[in-house]
Design the sequence.
């Protein structure tokens, strides 16, 4: 696992570095006299259209590894889904602000499996109809310090928590067992965030956050990348479009959940934003 984890960290770090480098170059290319967004408070409500790939392994309590399960292919979870998403920030002054975000990617499924699955110490044979519940609620809270601010944009260092409320559960009639577990993973992340005013109406925003270490009951990596544009409709309202890519590959060793979670979601975001 360490070799594959090392390869994953190198790949994701290179990818994040390229994306952030492009964003930084754009943000630093400041030449006009338009003012950056100086709103004290911003709130956006949007529709997040996601495409997901999820693999999960739930081990037995005695430490016997379970079967890695492709949740979309083997258990029939919807690969694409649309959910509501809340984002916003509160700016203390020109250099300091708090960003937050919340959305729910939970899903359920029911499918007759075509391969044997060992899940949490229970073996489910071929042709068993499994009912699955897979919860993923994401709450993000981060502090951003502006290290460079110009008339047309800013670039900031960010640090905070990516809180993933994760729950997994499988059940089947005739097997006599319901196996699952849940855990709240407060993963500390660091990254970059910034914006660049393209014109009086259009603003480009980008950010990236990274977790790649052993922390408490978790080890693995998390990469969260975002890029999008806002179109100013009125003085205090804007319409936005963005792309968000997140990769979570975390090993968990906890009393409530032991196993591995390899979840990825990519999606487009359409939102309405109000500033005060």
Sequence:
């Amino acid at each position: 696992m360490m070799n594959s984890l090392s390869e994953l960290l190198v790949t994701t770090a290179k990818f994040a570095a390229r994306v952030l480098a492009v964003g930084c170059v754009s943000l630093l290319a400041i030449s006009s006299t338009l003012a950056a967004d100086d709103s004290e408070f911003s709130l956006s409500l949007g529709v997040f259209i996601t495409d997901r790939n999820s693999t999960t392994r739930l081990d037995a309590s005695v430490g016997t590894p379970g079967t890695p399960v492709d949740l979309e292919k083997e258990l029939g979870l919807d690969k694409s889904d649309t959910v509501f998403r809340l984002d916003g920030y509160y700016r203390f002054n020109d250099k300091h602000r708090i960003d937050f975000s919340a959305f729910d990617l939970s899903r359920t499924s029911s499918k007759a499996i075509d391969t044997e699955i060992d899940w949490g110490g229970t073996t489910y044979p071929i042709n068993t109809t499994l009912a699955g519940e897979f919860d993923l609620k994401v709450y993000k809270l981060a502090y951003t310090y502006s290290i460079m601010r110009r008339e047309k944009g800013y670039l900031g260092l960010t640090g905070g928590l990516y809180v993933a409320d994760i729950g997994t559960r499988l059940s089947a009639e005739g097997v006599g067992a319901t196996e699952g577990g849940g855990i709240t993973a407060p993963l500390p992340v660091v990254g970059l965030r910034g914006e660049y005013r393209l014109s009086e109406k259009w603003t480009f925003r980008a950010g990236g956050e990274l977790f790649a270490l052993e922390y408490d009951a978790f080890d693995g990596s998390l990469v969260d990348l975002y890029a999008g544009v806002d179109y100013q409709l009125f003085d205090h309202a804007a319409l936005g479009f963005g792309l968000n890519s997140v990769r979570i590959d975390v090993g968990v060793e906890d009393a409530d959940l032991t196993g591995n979670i390899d979840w990825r979601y990519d999606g487009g975001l359409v939102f309405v934003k109000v500033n005060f």
